[in-house]
Design the sequence.
């Protein structure tokens, strides 16, 4: 049997299975009714933001100061090179207008991104041609570490500083980098033992003195490294052949071991500063939305610190103070809103939402520094890099602009997994 | 976007209804392959159409609507899949009312191939459905799912490799393939 046979078999089976699929015709009124529910939920969330923001974020500058400088936690007071200027004006409901039209143009992003054709990566130092179209590219030692979707699954590709391929190994579904860039968490399939995958915590810079640590993932699972919890703990998730996902904390105290984190369906981010891990915990049948939560695994591996059904947390800020989040009911294009939450409470600090009749979609968001997020944003058929900060300021990050053709996404952040 | 009062009609609604009528059977077939059962497929299509309705004025190029809806369905199905998985964990004496519905698809004579498709992880299954059922190119699948072409290749390759492996352990699969010729 060759590939053609298998493809034919699949095509024939899928067509036969779907032939004459009946079901009840869905009427226009039913669709409108569903649309009203979705719209009502969005309004409720917006109202909730207004209430919360009114108590903690008016004026915006005060909220930022309050959120950053926690008098109860002096050890975590960050050093701020440049404080975000609270010049933005929120709407009466506390949210900030979110549109790429008419935004002031700021500096080019300090994050690497990949442009159309998937082969050109733009860094603050200039453009670099990639040897392949990768799913993720992160700095590694003197060169780069990339995730490549190959014929045998994902591959970790180590590249030298000139983008020459040094080595390739079968990989997990993402690469996670520590906030300071000194360590990198990867997964690697073992060629010698069938079904075995190991998770590796490795030095990512030449001057970081530490031995590589490994954890065994469950047999026959697909592994997604998520991030670091502290010097001795990492988080990854493993999906078995039935599609069930288990979230695991890899601990290195003399003998590396794993501890399940109970209650998550999947996780998106960790912070080695605040020790939290955030992810999805439930799906609500009635509302069609997910609920999300943060856990402090050092305190409990079963209880959540906070939970929200209004936002989908995506990534903690480098200083652990905030977490950037999308809407819990993102549509096919992405999240219609961009929100920054207080990492310790899950409450919104600032929310950007589009004006009425404007469709905005955030496809990726990543932290540029402790208070600034860079997001890839679609409006109409235009795609831009947008910089948003915790004070509610919004600007274009550089002049890069691409047009969406045939639903293609012509712009993506290199260090954020695309899948 | 504000919704018109119930019963109100407009050119916009008429256009949307026309799209619904024309594309609903096709969307339902795709949804069925993504979800594996009719009722979840209907839910999926209804939610996708509702979200499309809310964005209808803003989808500026009508030729892109199908791709947009497919993308909504795939993303929604990821959530539905999680819900289904949670249900597996719950023991209940109450039998869902749709169990036992007899139709061509659910009457128990599922082929081993169909069972195989059902075991694929949701993301891989979406790639397989779009690639081998919708007959979209790797680039088109990548566009709809918002992933790289390389990922489409690797996901479909993994699915085919898994199928190949199953053939070795379940000869029935290859016989089915031969019988279908």
Sequence:
């Amino acid at each position: 049997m060759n590939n053609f046979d298998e493809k034919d078999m699949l095509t024939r089976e899928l067509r036969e299975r779907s032939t004459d699929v009946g079901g009840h015709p869905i009427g226009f009124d039913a669709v409108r009714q569903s649309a009203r529910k979705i719209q009502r939920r969005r309004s409720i969330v917006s109202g909730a933001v207004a209430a919360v923001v009114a108590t903690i974020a008016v004026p915006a500058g005060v909220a930022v100061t309050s959120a950053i400088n926690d008098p109860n936690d002096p050890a975590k007071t960050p050093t701020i090179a440049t404080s975000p200027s609270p010049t933005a004006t929120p709407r009466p409901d506390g949210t900030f207008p979110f549109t790429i039209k008419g935004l002031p143009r700021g500096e080019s992003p300090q994050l690497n991104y990949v442009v159309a054709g998937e082969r050109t990566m733009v860094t603050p130092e200039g453009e670099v041609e990639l040897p392949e179209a990768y799913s993720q590219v992160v700095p590694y030692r003197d060169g780069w570490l990339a995730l490549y979707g190959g014929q045998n699954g994902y591959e970790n590709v180590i590249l030298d500083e000139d983008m020459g391929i040094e080595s390739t190994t079968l990989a997990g579904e993402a690469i996670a980098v520590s906030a300071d860039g000194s360590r990198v968490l990867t997964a690697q399939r073992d060629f010698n033992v069938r079904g075995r995958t190991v998770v590796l915590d490795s030095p990512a810079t030449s001057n970081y003195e530490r031995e590589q640590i490994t954890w065994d993932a469950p047999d026959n699972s697909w592994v997604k490294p998520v991030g670091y919890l502290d010097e001795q703990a990492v988080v990854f998730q493993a999906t078995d052949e039935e599609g069930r996902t288990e979230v695991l904390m890899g601990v290195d105290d003399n003998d590396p071991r794993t501890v399940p984190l109970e209650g998550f369906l999947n996780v998106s981010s960790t912070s080695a500063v605040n020790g939290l891990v955030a992810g999805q915990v439930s799906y609500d049948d009635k509302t069609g939305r997910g609920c999300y939560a943060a856990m402090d695994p050092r305190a409990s591996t079963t209880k959540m610190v906070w939970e929200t059904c209004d936002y989908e947390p995506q990534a903690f800020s480098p200083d652990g103070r905030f977490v950037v989040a999308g809407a819990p009911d993102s549509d096919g294009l992405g999240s219609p809103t961009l929100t920054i939450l207080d990492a310790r409470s899950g409450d919104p600090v600032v929310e950007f939402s589009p004006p009425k009749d404007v469709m905005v979609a955030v496809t990726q968001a990543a932290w540029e520094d402790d208070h600034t997020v860079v997001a890839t944003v679609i409006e109409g058929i235009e795609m831009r890099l947008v910089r948003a900060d915790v004070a509610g300021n919004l600007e274009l990050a550089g002049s890069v602009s691409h047009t969406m053709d045939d639903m293609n996404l012509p712009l993506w952040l290199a260090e954020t997994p695309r899948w | 976007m504000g919704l018109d009062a119930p019963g109100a009609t407009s050119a916009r609604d008429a256009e949307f209804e026309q799209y619904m009528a024309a594309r609903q059977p096709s969307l339902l077939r795709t949804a069925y392959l993504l979800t594996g059962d009719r009722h979840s497929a209907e839910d999926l299509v209804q939610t996708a159409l509702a979200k499309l309705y809310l964005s209808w004025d803003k989808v500026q190029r009508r030729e892109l609507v199908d791709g947009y809806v497919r993308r909504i369905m795939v993303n929604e199905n990821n959530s539905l899949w999680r819900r289904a998985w949670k249900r597996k964990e719950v023991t209940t004496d109450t039998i869902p009312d749709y169990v036992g519905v007899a139709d061509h698809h659910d009457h128990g004579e599922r082929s081993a191939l169909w069972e195989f498709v059902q075991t694929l992880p949701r993301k891989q299954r979406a790639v397989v459905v779009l690639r081998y059922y919708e007959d979209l190119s790797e680039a088109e699948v990548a566009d709809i799912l918002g992933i790289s072409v390389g990922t489409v290749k690797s996901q479909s390759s993994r699915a085919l490799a898994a199928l190949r492996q199953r053939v070795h352990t379940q000869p029935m699969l290859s016989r089915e393939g031969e019988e279908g010729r």
